[in-house]
Write a structure and sequence with these properties.
By secondary structure, the protein is an all-alpha fold. Helix content is 64%, strand content 2%. The chain has 9 helices and 2 strands; from the N terminus they run αααββαααααα. The protein has a two-stranded antiparallel ribbon. Strand 1 and strand 2 form a beta hairpin. Helix 1 runs antiparallel to helix 2, helix 4 packs across helix 5 and helix 5 runs parallel beside helix 8. The longest helix has 22 residues.
């Protein structure tokens, strides 16, 4: 199933590039196709990166009032926070580089912790909320662009690397990139203060 969806995603990415070069504008249903592909890919994980395990652990300890910057996942003082998901994944054992402190900035920790408050140990809920955040950002960005810019943007987000790394692997770079794009758009529309705030959060 994953291979089939992946092949569809790659073929779709190629077709959007060809269509954009030939027609310069994509039909509205094309956006729906991208959303469907993203949703189908969102149920998979660990394709190009396992960083999402660190996101979940950082969010878990943050939601329990523990500073993620002061303790590494392997710290024995956090043994009481260890948990096992419905899929049998044991935290923090699964967290990559568990002997190293987190490298993710405060803005990311706010996102991780906030999502965990709703998802608890449920991995699927965590990913669906993450995916919903990406969809909201995509919607805001697309609404802020003109027709030709929307076509180019759709081609960009149809890139297999973005679909696999940003959606499948739930990588933070996807949210960071969308916030950066939004800040650039806002700055071009004469809203530098808001643009600066969003860029700083990104």
């Amino acid at each position: 199933v994953m291979l089939s969806v992946s092949m569809i995603a790659i073929l779709w990415a190629i077709s959007t590039v060809v269509w954009a070069l030939c027609c310069r504008a994509l039909p509205r249903w094309a956006y729906g196709v991208v959303v469907i592909i993203m949703l189908a890919l969102s149920v998979h994980r660990d394709v190009l990166s396992d960083d999402a395990y660190r996101y979940r652990w950082d969010g878990w300890v943050t939601s329990h009032g523990v500073n993620p910057y002061t303790h590494v996942p392997q710290d024995s003082t956090l043994d009481h926070l260890a948990f096992t998901t419905e899929d049998g994944i044991v935290y923090p054992d699964v967290v990559p580089y568990g002997h190293i402190h987190t490298i993710y900035p405060p803005g990311a920790q706010i996102i991780f912790g906030s999502i965990t408050l709703f998802s608890s140990t449920n991995e699927l809920v965590f990913k669906l909320i993450w995916w919903a955040i990406i969809m909201v950002l995509l919607f805001v960005v697309i609404r802020s662009l003109d027709e030709h810019q929307r076509t180019l943007f759709l081609v960009a987000i149809s890139c297999p690397v973005i679909l696999f790394h940003g959606i499948m692997d739930m990588h933070l770079d996807m949210i960071m990139a969308l916030l950066t794009v939004l800040s650039i758009i806002l700055n071009s529309k004469g809203r530098p203060l808001l643009a600066s705030g969003i860029l700083g959060f990104a």
